[in-house]
Amino acid sequence: MSRQPHTAAGGALSLERLVFFSDAVFAIAITLLVLEIEVPHLPRVQDSEPFLQALADLFPSFFAFVLSFLVIGRFWMTHHGLMDHVKTYDPRLMWPNMMYLMAIAFMPFATALIGRNLGLFGPALFYNLTLLVTALLGRLLVQRIEALDPTSDTLLGEAAGSNAVILGATLSVLLTFVLPAISQMGMITIPLWIRLLKRRNPA
């Protein structure tokens, strides 16, 4: 059976639904991060020491929350920029976009795992590999959008951002084998990678 072409109105509506659904997944994933931080049960005493100790005990969860909030935010910014370049809906966008969103939706679990086991090799490697897989799926989406309009050079910025996230995540994975406790700091090199990639391939 041949695929029926989309009308202009139908294509615009399908693209709008795709973007709205994607934004909803990002919003839910980024909100779920805070639900993984357990509220401490404090003794019924007028003493600040138990409260301060409870906050100190929650530091790994706070760190994981802030880290993943910024990472998912970076992924969303890349996705937002990509969708700005999609002028007409194409069904071939559906599966690459869905796979990317699946990885985003998985992030709260990886965040909870590292938050409760901060500094351990296994959870750190699992988290960093999750970042890398998500970045690679994001690059796949970039390639699919590029294929829709191969003559356009306006995707260079988003492609550089996507490649920079891959490089940052790869660095985090490598750092896991040396310094697992701070391996996620490889992600803070993303702005540097973006500058280097844009300088190498100016628009």
Distance between the termini: 41 Å
CA-based gyration radius: 20 Å
Total beta-strand segments = 0
Structural domains: how many? 1
Contiguous low-pLDDT stretches (5 residues minimum) are: 1-5
Give the biggest beta sheet.
none
Helical element count? Answer: 7
Structural class based on helices, strands and sheet pairing: mainly alpha
Provide the residue-averaged pLDDT: 85
**How helical, in percent, are the residues?**
over 70%
Describe it.
The longest helix is centred in the first third of the chain and has 28 residues, at 8-35. Helix 3 runs antiparallel to helix 4 (94-116), helix 5 (121-148) packs antiparallel against helix 6 (156-176) and helix 6 (156-176) packs across helix 7 (190-200). The protein has helices spanning 8-35, 48-57, 59-84, 94-116, 121-148, 156-176, 190-200. The N and C termini lie far apart (41 Å). By secondary structure, it is an all-alpha fold. The model is unreliable at 1-5 (pLDDT under 50). The protein has one domain (8-200). Helices cover 72% and strands 0% of the residues.
